């Protein structure tokens, strides 16, 4: 996570603007909740899924901010039977637009990893 420091061209010596990578991560994680059909990412240890996807949590986002640009790496789950391709393209376009307008940064790249597919209804486990 890096930070961005930039002075607007018309500041007249009033100071600069610093946007932390953590702030961009939180903005992106909140923006992804505005879309339907997307859940939290499955937790992983050494690349192996541990437990299931955490639908109560948002997507996991990491941001790399350099100058006035940022790239995002997003991990999420998609509701089955939605198209993974269509859902991730919608999410990518939404993040490019929404995070850009809320942070003032230019989002140059959004990498999305789908960690799981989840059913529309929550599964309940029963002992038989």
Element layout with pairings:
Elements lengths: L2 E4 L10 E4 H12 L5 E2 L2 E4 L2 E6 L6 E7 L2 E11 L4 H20 L2 E13 L10
Parallel strand pairs: 7-8
Antiparallel strand pairs: 1-2, 3-7, 4-5, 6-7
Structure, explained:
The chain has 128 residues and is an alpha+beta fold. It contains 2 helices and 8 strands; from the N terminus they run ββαβββββαβ. The strands form 3 sheets. Strands 3, 6, 7 and 8 form a 4-stranded mixed sheet that branches. The protein has a two-stranded antiparallel ribbon with strand order 1-2. A hairpin with a 2-residue loop joins strand 6 and strand 7 (69-79). The longest helix has 20 residues, at 84-103. It is elongated and about 70 Å long. The termini are far apart. The mean pLDDT is 81.
Largest sheet: 4 strands, mixed
Q: Kindly report how far apart the N and C termini lie.
A: 47 Å
**If you compute it from the alpha carbons, what radius of gyration comes out, rounded to the nearest whole angstrom?**
17 Å
Helix/strand/pairing category = alpha+beta
H-E order: EEHEEEEEHE
Tally of alpha and pi helices: 2
- Overall strand count: 8
Pfam families: Asp23
Family: Belongs to the asp23 family.
Protein name: Asp23/Gls24 family envelope stress response protein
Keywords:
two-stranded antiparallel ribbon, 2 helices, 25% helix
């Amino acid at each position: 996570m890096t930070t961005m420091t930039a002075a607007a061209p018309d500041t007249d010596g009033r100071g600069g603007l610093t946007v932390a990578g953590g702030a961009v991560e939180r903005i992106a994680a909140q923006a992804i909740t505005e879309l339907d059909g997307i859940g939290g990412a499955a937790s992983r240890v050494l690349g192996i899924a541990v437990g299931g996807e955490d639908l109560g949590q948002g997507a996991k986002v990491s941001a790399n901010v350099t100058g006035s640009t940022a790239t995002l790496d997003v991990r999420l789950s998609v509701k089955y039977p939605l198209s993974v391709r269509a859902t991730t393209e919608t999410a990518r376009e939404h993040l490019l637009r929404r995070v850009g307008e809320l942070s003032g940064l230019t989002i140059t790249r959004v990498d999305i990893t789908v960690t799981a597919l989840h059913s529309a209804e929550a599964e309940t486990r029963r002992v038989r």
